[in-house]
Amino acid sequence: xxxxxxxxxxxxxxxxxxxxxxxxxxxxxxxxxxxxxxxxxxxxxxxxxxxxxxxxxxxxxxxxxxxxxxxxxxxxxxxxxxxxxxxxxxxxxxxxxxxxxxxxxxxxxxxxxxxxxxxxxxxxxxxxxxxxxxxxxxxxxxxxxxxxxxxxxxxxxxxxxxxxxxxxxxxxxxxxxxxxxxxxxxxxxxxxxxxxxxxxxxxxxxxxxxxxxxxxxxxxxxxxxxxxxxxxxxxxxxxxxxxxxxxxxxxxxxxxxxxxxxxxxxxxxxxxxxxxxxxxxxxxxxxxxxxxxxxxxxxxxxxxxxxxxxxxxxxxxxxxx
Length: 321
What we know:
Elements: E1 7-13, H1 18-29, E2 36-42, H2 49-52, E3 61-65, H3 72-82, E4 87-90, E5 96-97, H4 101-111, E6 117-128, E7 131-134, H5 149-156, E8 169-171, H6 172-177, H7 190-200, E9 205-216, H8 222-225, H9 227-242, H10 251-262, H11 272-288, H12 293-319
Parallel strand pairs: 1-2, 1-4, 2-3, 6-9
Antiparallel strand pairs: 4-8, 5-9, 6-7, 6-8
Helix pairs in contact: 5-7, 9-10, 11-12
């Protein structure tokens, strides 16, 4: 074991599926960059995580027990507080990191000391008959931001700007100096609030334009099984940003904005009311200058186009025999 690891990998788990867990752990232990510690936080699982780790003989693994289920945010804050690395790398127990992920993220961060957080693109996949099947193609507008935090903030008003959470790679010193932690009142969409805190603290974000993680899509993952609850916490972040433009934002306005801004809903279309709402946002921003107006106009355009495309896809799907 290295005297001080360069990277602390943190992975919270709660009743993980055995095969997925094994694939996730193997993908970390097989990284081409090996100077890291691997902190696995058992968030009150109902069976022994130790038993799942019997197949691995690696002193970089450290198992942390919460004793009871306290949530992902608590688990990640605890792991970060016990970490020794210069960088914090996120990982989920149902995804697969590609072998050169850490090497490329570490090298980028070392060469760009001004960057606070970097992520990567992901390859979404499902498993059919025991084989990985790529299902990406949905990302029509991939963002790296190129350290453009004006674009980052404008996107944040409409949707989670990323990076995709299990690809996140943090500079620990920045988080400590700005006292940034996961909000433990947010049981889901923790990363959305975290990115807002990073932005407010003056951080810089970059997303490496290379797919360095296999992102598993299945019915049990939070983004699918807890979509409604996750949306609730996403709305809270968006409402906080909307209130920087407007004196007061009602729950109805927050719900309306979330529906037409995120692009999560296939049936929304582009009704006149949504055009008026986006126009209201642009007018308010002209007066208060909270966001870069050009970046905000671009984000409005993207949202309108995405909604139109999704509505068209929905209609086409319904018309299929």
